Every structure is written in C-alpha cells, then in structure tokens.
C-alpha cells in the first residue's frame, strides 16, 4: 500500500464517512487497507471472518452470524472487512450507500 495516503483534516471526508465496507479478492490487501483506514479515521474495525468463525475455526451458526451482522449494521460507525455471504454483502452496500447519499443530499440542501 502506498505510504502517501492523505492526512485528512477536520473538514475532509474523514469527518463525514462513518461507514465503510471493504471487499476484494483473497490476498488483495483489503485487510491491510481496512486496518489503515481504521488508523487514519479512528473508526472501529470489524472483520467478517471473526464474526463467522469462532477461535479454532468452528463456524458460527448462520442465524447467529446474521443477527450479529444486522446488529453491527445498525451501529453509527464502522469499517467492515470481508465478504461474508452474498446477502450480507448486499446489506452492507445498501447501508453504506444510503448513509453516503443522505450526507450528500444534506450537504446540497444546506449549501455546504
């Protein structure tokens, strides 16, 4: 990852962006990106694999994972690293896009 990531100030996107979903191929650097974003923004980082699997590798029951995922999406701030399954991935996209769209609309309406 390039070391030249911007240092965000209080007026930039870091003060607006509160929900980030990081997706990508295995080995593509998404976990590293997610950790770096968490460092830069102070947003809490959640790793989907840690929600889906218990220590030692046993899979969490699917309904338990779905409930934990739904609870997380209701939080005000997050960076979520990983894919999970198709249904939860689309839920993350929808939440992040709805939130970002509301910020953009609020900014347009207020003239900022």
Defining key terms:
3 strands; mainly alpha; Rossmann fold
Summarize this entry quickly:
The chain has 112 residues and is mainly alpha-helical. The protein is built from four helices and three strands, in the order βαβααβα.
Description:
There is one protein chain. With 112 residues, this protein is mainly α. It has one domain (18-110): P-loop containing nucleotide triphosphate hydrolases (Rossmann fold). Helix content is 48%, strand content 10%. α3 packs parallel to α4. The longest helix has 25 residues, at 86-110.
Total helical segments: 4
Low-confidence parts, pLDDT < 50 over ≥5 residues? 1-6
CATH topology: Rossmann fold
Helix content percent band: 40-55%
- What is the percentage of strand-forming residues? 5-15%
Calculate the mean pLDDT score and round it: 79
**Going across the major beta sheet, what is the strand order?**
1-3-2
**Structurally, how many domains make up the residues?**
1
Q: Looking at the structure, what is the overall shape?
A: globular
Helix-strand layout with pairing:
Elements: E1 19-22, H1 30-41, E2 45-47, H2 48-52, H3 62-73, E3 78-81, H4 86-110
Parallel strand pairs: 1-3, 2-3
């Amino acid at each position: 990852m390039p070391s030249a990531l911007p240092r965000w100030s209080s007026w930039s996107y870091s003060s607006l962006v509160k929900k980030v979903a990081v997706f990508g191929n295995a080995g593509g650097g998404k976990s590293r990106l997610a950790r770096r974003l968490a460092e830069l923004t102070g947003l809490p980082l959640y790793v989907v694999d840690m929600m889906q699997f218990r220590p030692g590798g046993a899979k969490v029951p699917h309904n338990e994972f779905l409930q934990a995922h739904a609870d997380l999406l209701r939080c005000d701030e997050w960076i979520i690293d990983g894919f999970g399954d198709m249904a939860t991935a689309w839920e993350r996209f929808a939440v992040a896009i709805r939130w970002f769209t509301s910020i953009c609309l609020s900014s347009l309406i207020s003239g900022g």
